[in-house]
Amino acid sequence: MCAVRALTKTYPAQRGRRGVPASPEVRATDDVTLDIRRGEIFGLLGPNGAGKSTLVRQLTGLMRPDSGSVEILGHDIVRHPERAARILAYLGQESSALDELTVSLAAETTGRLRGLDVRRARAERDAVLDELGLTGLAARPIKKLSGGQRRLACFAAALVGERPLLVLDEPTTGMDPVARRAVWSAVDRRRAEHGATVLLVTHNVIEAETVLDRVAVLDRGRVIACDTPSGLKEKVAGEVRVDLVWRESAPLNVPEVAALRDRVVESGRRWTLRLAPEEARAVVATVTGGAAFAALDDFTLATPSLEDVYLALGGAARQGLVRA
Amino acid sequence: MVRTPAAASVPDGTTVPAGATASNDPSEGELRDVSVVPADALGGAAPAAGGQRVAGPAELGPRARLWPSLVAVYRAQLSRARVARIPLLFVATFQSVGIMILMRGVVDGGGEARAVVAGSAVLVVAFVALNLLAQYFGQLRASGGLDHYATLPVPPAAVVLGAAGAYASFTVPGTVVTAVFGCLLFGLPVTHLWVLVAVIPLAGAALAGLGAALGLLAPRPEFATLLGQLGMSAALLLGVLPPERMPQVVRLARDLLPSTYGVEAFARTFGERPDWGLVLGDLAVCAAVGVISLAVATWAYRRAAVR
Ligand SMILES: Nc1ncnc2c1ncn2[C@@H]1O[C@H](COP(=O)(O)OP(=O)(O)OP(=O)(O)O)[C@@H](O)[C@H]1O
Ligand SMILES: [Mg+2]
């Protein structure tokens, strides 16, 4: 469906101006090779700045790669970027083009610009707004909606005028559970009814584990792993994650706690440890009994998530992924 | 949030390692009801690994045709302008009315008065079509808003012409009010005000094309704003002040400004017996500049859309 081969893109270095420090060149996409199959929900997971948006912008014909190829449904998108618009619908991370329109006009206009006639565009607009529960907000300018509602309205516009491939750059940012569910069931319906393929950008591991068929983990422009979420998690199956949250600071006077110190990832009051199951059990016993207990605010014990996979694969950003 | 750790987590988290996440995330359950359709169960291409499908490239979706998409962009832009730009239209109108009131003490009727009224009326067009449109495209480009249009199969000309047309139409009430007020103030005949039907779209095309091109070509949005403002100031100084009092160099600059020809065409129609040939000539210059600047703007849009 979509084949990406050895794709590379470097942003040039910026010379410093007064008040603006110079920035070095950034290799935002580094020799990326991927295959997305028809009908799957394929994810790009990575922390901020990993190069997810840069990669999808090259797949959507918005940006020309320095080298490499992109083929979608048999069309060479590097040579014919304008064809992308006739194959896919894209929901970008920014949506300033629609901001000042009403929800209803944004959806209708987008449909018309996808080549629908007025009647079809209006009918699809009404159906999509209804499907996403936006009918009550239809007459409101998008700018005056809340962040999550705005995102949902832009998602609605992306759905008007059916396409075999949906490219969604962090579609659920700022959405509450109800809105997210609306997004996922709309995506799922298009896949079940039309065999639509979805390319989803996210930095949320829970989202990645639950909605994706396959996921490519991106770090500093490179794909460091690509498999099903459960396949990836098998790589770290032998480990358990222990999160300890201290009330104020870690009780380093307790020798067992002090001994853990050089194995933890610290972020504020939180300590994260990746341990073999028996070790984890011992740590839990230590901190829930005895002197350390008084200093403990909360703890969790979990089987590994994609975040652990990311870190185990050598991902650079320690706290870059979100569990929510 | 001070809870005893035991009460907080142990109930869900005691089984090691089979116990799932102890932090019971509400979104998790909510996401789980997505049915998992195996990718390969859905008809169509086999996975790339074993796929020997020899079918050629898939059929593309329809292209949006020029005229319908132009109309769609025009409608959307006009509604945007109505929501967000009405106060600015008032500003533009008051500015022009204010200038005419000031100039009343300076000019002494006749040709100068005609130039002032025509210049003030066309100034409203310059304010909206040149200045505001340059700002709009500059910001749209900087904020990544062009991506939206660039990922739709819409002809670039439809986006540029639709926006330019909407901004030019948006100037109509302000221009008409200014022209009528000017006629009353300076005692000019309102007989030929109908010529605005040609002056507004043609001067509008020239100035909106210029504004769109500046906005799309400026390397940064601040530059786009600056260029739009400068263009409008030029239209103000060179269009409103009577040319007879200008030095030669300034007159040359005036001749290079497209709004000048709209002003001249309009000013001629206040005469006793207007020379319609000259009016047409001036309007033709506006039209030509409009065609060229809109073509440049379309080219600039294409360039800005794919980086
Ligand atoms: N226009 C640009 N010019 C220069 N560098 C850029 C530009 N856009 C992005 N970058 C850099 O390229 C890298 C990848 O950026 P990108 O926007 O693709 O990240 P991302 O994975 O989408 O992040 P996020 O999760 O924050 O959206 C980053 O290091 C970023 O600083
Ligand atoms: Mg991004």
Automatic annotation (TrEMBL), chain A:
Subcellular location(s) of the protein: Cell membrane
Record keywords, A-Z: Antibiotic resistance, ATP-binding, Nucleotide-binding, Transport
Family annotation (Pfam families): ABC_tran
InterPro entries in the record: AAA+_ATPase, ABC_transporter-like_ATP-bd, ABC_transporter-like_CS, ABC_transporter_ATP-binding, P-loop_NTPase
UniProt membrane topology term: Peripheral membrane protein
MF (Gene Ontology): ATP binding
Matching SUPFAM superfamilies: P-loop containing nucleoside triphosphate hydrolases
Domain ABC transporter: 4-245
Transmembrane domains' residue ranges: none
Signal peptide: none
PANTHER family for the chain: ABC TRANSPORTER ATP-BINDING PROTEIN (PTHR42711), DOXORUBICIN RESISTANCE ATP-BINDING PROTEIN DRRA (PTHR42711:SF19)
Entry protein name: ABC transporter ATP-binding protein
Species, as recorded: Streptomyces violaceorubidus
Lineage: Bacteria, Bacillati, Actinomycetota, Actinomycetes, Kitasatosporales
